[in-house]
Amino acid sequence: MTGMSDNGMTKARLAGLIERDDQWATLETLLTDSLSGSGRVALLTGPVASGKTELLHAFGEASGAGFVKATCSAFERDLPFGVASQIFHPLDAPDEVGELLDAAARSAEGPTARQLHALCLALLDLTAETPLVIGIDDVQHADSSSLHWLLYLIRRIGQAKVLLMLSETASPRAAHTALHTELLRHPHCRDVQLAPLGSLGELFEASAHAADAMALSGGNPLLVRSLLDDQRLCKPRDDGGLVIGPSYRRALVSCLHRSDHHVLPVARALAVTGEQATHESLGRLARTDTDTVASALDVMNEAGLLCDGWFRDPAARGAVLDDLSTQDRKEMYLGAALLLHDEGAPATEVAPYLVMADHSENPWMVPVFVEAAEHALRDEQIDTALRYLELAHRACVEVHGRAAIAAKLVRVEWRVNPSAAGRRLGTVVPAMRAGQLSDRDVTSLVQPMLWNCQVDEATEAMDRVRRTTTSSNGLRAMELWLACSHPTLARRATSTPEAVKTRTVSLTSGPMLKAVTALANVLTYGNNDASATDAEHVLQAARPSDSGWWGPESAMLALQALVYADRLDVAAQWCDKLLDEARTKNLAVARAFFSCVRAEVSLRRGDLTTAFEHAQNALDLMPAGGWGVALGMPLGILINAATKMGRHEDAASFLEQPVPEAMFQSRYGLHYLYARGHHYLATSRHYAALADFLSCGELMTSWGVDQPGVVPWRTSAAEAWLLHGANRDEAKRLINEQLARLGPDASRTRGVALRLLAATNQPHNRPQLLQDAVVILEEYGDQYELARALADLSKAHQALREHRRAWTVARRAWHVANVCDAAELCEELLPSRGKADGEDAPAEEKPADPIATLTDAERRVAALAAVGYTNREIASKLYITPSTIEQHLTRVYRKLNVKYRKDLPADLHSYLPSTA
């Protein structure tokens, strides 16, 4: 027993193999028996990589007896006596042994009993005086000749000083081999089983890491060791968790390759098909029977590679897939797709495999991709739907089907990239002209055509649909939408907004028809409860990415109906809700749409900074090229907001942005003309301003949408006449005409009209008109117009030498204008300029605290900047763009009279938003 005294050191060499004391003790007992002349056989069995090889080698070297070892390999099974040669070679056997081996190996019919007997006697003679430990690793891969010799030896080992140690990977198949049958017959044979490790606490410093390692490895020693290597060699995780690195992945794949040949194909099939795969489906993909699949799964479960038939971590599954070549992986994905399709699986399960296989060459795949795309749209997975449709288009060879898929691609891509959808129209228009598209498909293309300024093509499409379709909700919605948004293309007799008075929408009408009907009614008859109710019904069911023809535009049209109806509070609530949903789902186009409407709401409430931010966000989310003819809306809001804030250079730069000519024949162009007119008015180009306002009036009158809720062109034209001072009578006529059209009901436009009407009246009549205007504008929440009405009221009191009252009103006007961030109006209302002649202003000329001069938005930005956040970090926290942050800080520096962030006052910390 020399050498066994260093038992502790020897077991330490097992490099992490713990809990092996029982097995070691069993081997020691068998060795003792062998040294006394009673030969023994130890069969070391256990799952793959459970430490059999290491235990075999470590014990053999520590035994103190002679030790020879042989390693079996599946690649050497055809080499006769390959294993036996490995054993005899280091023993310095006589030459006749080598000759005997060569002769037996050359035998075409295999070794004879005489040859096996002679080889067995040769080994026993060599061990007669010198005890021997023979270790044979992976005996299940031994060549048949060597295996016959081993069986012969086992039957005669009882009187020899030999300990024969055989290691074998446990599997259901191994239990039925001739070797196992023979071993069970002999009492001097012992089965030494190695199970996965039960505890890893001694190997990992952190108990949490030990628990995670056990969950990842199932106690498999090789996997445990690989995880230890990953902790040592890889960069630690930020959260301090267990690192799963390349060592773990390599070790897991190695375990599969070292298992029986039937295990690896099943593991690959499992990695491809997923956790819910049945034994039958795995067998078909791995090209084997269900019994073999069950056996392979048992082997992998026992080895700790799987847990209840599935990979213990996504990294394990990924390692198995990465072990496949690109071509093999694609073929397996295609095989899985064919398997699922044959089994009648839904398209949503089949299509992902076809995508991963990058295969779309068979006609049967077309309906699979199309159906899967429909499901993806309903789940608001637009990019996935586009991918499926592109593959369907590639696979489809039938002309009409291919054209229909191309049309659907245009509609779907319009929701994520309108300009890209416009580029696809070049392939769809020829199909439309060739009669390869249905009326429904043709109708659905009109909107993207007009959006991308393809007016002639859209006209051609509508002419065809009108000729072939008598009536349908889709055509009705399209006609009304044209009347509201592109009136020059509408069928005047039946689809102008005037024609909607007798039309109603049923409860079963689609969201687009409901939305466009509500908008048409508002454009025709102004603010009314029924239209607002219809618009809210649409929004209650709206999703940021509707799967219908129109995508998010039905919600956008419903929001615009509320805006034009002066239901600004309701519109703001719905905008914010839809914006949050679109932001959560990362739908850039929907966010751009809703940001644009939210900007319009803020502009009409006089919240200029918020309006500017939302409009800028809309253009950041979808650049000008993507807005097409609708560019007039966000661009008009930017121009208008910048003008009212006194940022005339910014407004002029926005006007330099090229716009499509077709925009001026759409409703979107009205917003642009109106904003440009106000920029001209603020920069003393009165005739240019008047021309834009009157152009709005001419277009709106001819289109039948002459409602001030869209743009109040009459009051703006009247203001241009008044500021020019050339035609006060025409100004008064326009104002009175506007008031007459509005009726007795209060509205924002009525408040503005009363303010302007006061300017045409005698001084003693002005205060009452202006007070009425102030009351209305306070009720409707238009802070900017309220500040202007208060400013005019202050001037009216001054004209009547009511200085104290004038000063009080001017101070209030200044505060309201400051909240709006209307810098130019604030400058006009500064107390130093607002004092009445000959009378000192009250002591309170300016707010004592300069921070009070900041708007709420500026205070939030300044507070974050003061504590060290970068512009990009602030933009991320407040959901606005970095360029908007820069503009805020520029105004903050000016108002607080500082130059750098470090100079911002510490008092700003109290204004930090809760998210900071």
UniProtKB/TrEMBL annotation:
HTH luxR-type domain ranges (all copies): 847-912
Pfam families xrefs: AAA_16, GerE
Record Gene3D superfamilies: P-loop containing nucleotide triphosphate hydrolases (3.40.50.300), Tetratricopeptide repeat domain (1.25.40.10), Winged helix-like DNA-binding domain superfamily/Winged helix DNA-binding domain (1.10.10.10)
PROSITE patterns in the record: HTH_LUXR_1 (PS00622), HTH_LUXR_2 (PS50043)
Alphabetically ordered keywords of this record: DNA-binding, Transcription, Transcription regulation
SUPFAM superfamilies listed in its UniProt record: C-terminal effector domain of the bipartite response regulators (SSF46894), P-loop containing nucleoside triphosphate hydrolases (SSF52540), TPR-like (SSF48452)
Full protein name: AAA family ATPase
Species of the source: Lentzea sokolovensis
